[in-house]
Recover the amino acids of this structure.
């Protein structure tokens, strides 16, 4: 249905409702806005590649088009497939957003965001502008064969100390030397709560390796530890004067190389400082570790 025809239909429908006291003038304006701003032409040009930048040919690509035109609300599902060079496109549809899900046996989706906005009710900077000469590259991970990984799931309640604390992720214990990651805390005296905050911080340091903090979508869809780009430490500060950011706890996702490259971990680390000097701090590690000097995390596919 063209936008012009849809607008005409909505105008007639709105006029009838307005005439019989159904929606009022604001309701008519809302319907017209949806028809003229939220029902845009869906056009998309993409290319599917794997982690080696090779094209993913003959993959099934499903598009989910969200529709809210004022006349109809729902979702349309459309399908296509990639050609020999991994290219695909969607044309001839209308809606407000397009979500893309590619599928091919032996591959999993690695790109973290495959949703695209077309509605003019969104800011221009957030809207997708299709360009057949610049197809959007969507990455899939070609599975090489999952290797065994060690599950990490350990919580600790510890008395505050301003000295470093060494954690062995493999055994789930605190150690006096070696291990995988070192945490060092600082905090002011007295009681710390959301209502009565105070400065505190935690320094994360890998043992004989490196780390990198990541957002959850990338953390979840990374199936091999990076070969480079690690940092020597990560300092997270919780400031008393940052009322929006001070919640009494730290939650970070990170990749960790330790023990001279013999262990590669990806994990979520949650930390809460002790609210009074006499209380315990709380630290929890969740994730997986490949302990075979391999960067393979393919066992986390689907988790």
């Amino acid at each position: 249905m063209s936008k012009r025809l849809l607008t005409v239909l909505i105008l007639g429908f709105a006029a009838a409702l307005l005439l019989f006291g159904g929606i009022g003038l604001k309701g008519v304006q809302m319907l017209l806005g949806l028809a003229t701003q939220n029902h845009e032409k869906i056009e998309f040009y993409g290319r599917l590649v794997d982690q080696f930048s090779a094209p993913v040919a003959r993959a099934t690509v499903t598009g989910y088009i969200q529709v809210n035109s004022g006349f109809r609300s729902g979702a349309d599902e459309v399908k296509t497939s990639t050609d020999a060079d991994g290219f695909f496109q969607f044309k001839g549809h209308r809606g407000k957003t397009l979500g893309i899900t590619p599928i091919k046996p032996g591959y999993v989706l690695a790109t973290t965001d495959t949703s695209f906005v077309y509605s003019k009710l969104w800011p221009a900077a957030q809207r997708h502008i299709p360009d057949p000469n610049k197809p959007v590259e969507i990455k899939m991970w070609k599975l090489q064969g999952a290797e065994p990984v060690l599950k990490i799931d350990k919580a600790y309640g510890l008395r505050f100390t301003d000295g470093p604390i060494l954690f062995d992720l493999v055994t789930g214990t605190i150690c006096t030397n070696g291990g995988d990651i070192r945490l060092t805390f600082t905090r002011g005296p007295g009681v710390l709560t959301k209502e009565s905050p105070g400065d505190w911080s935690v320094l994360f340091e890998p043992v004989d390796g490196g780390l990198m903090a990541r957002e959850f979508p990338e953390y979840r869809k990374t199936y091999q530890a990076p070969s480079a780009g690690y940092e020597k430490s990560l300092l997270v500060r919780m400031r008393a004067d940052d009322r929006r950011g001070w919640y009494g706890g730290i939650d970070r996702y990170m990749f960790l190389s330790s023990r001279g490259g013999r262990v590669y971990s990806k994990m979520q680390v949650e930390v809460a400082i002790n609210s009074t000097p006499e209380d315990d701090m709380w630290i929890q590690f969740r994730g997986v570790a490949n302990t075979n000097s391999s960067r393979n995390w393919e066992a986390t596919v689907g988790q």
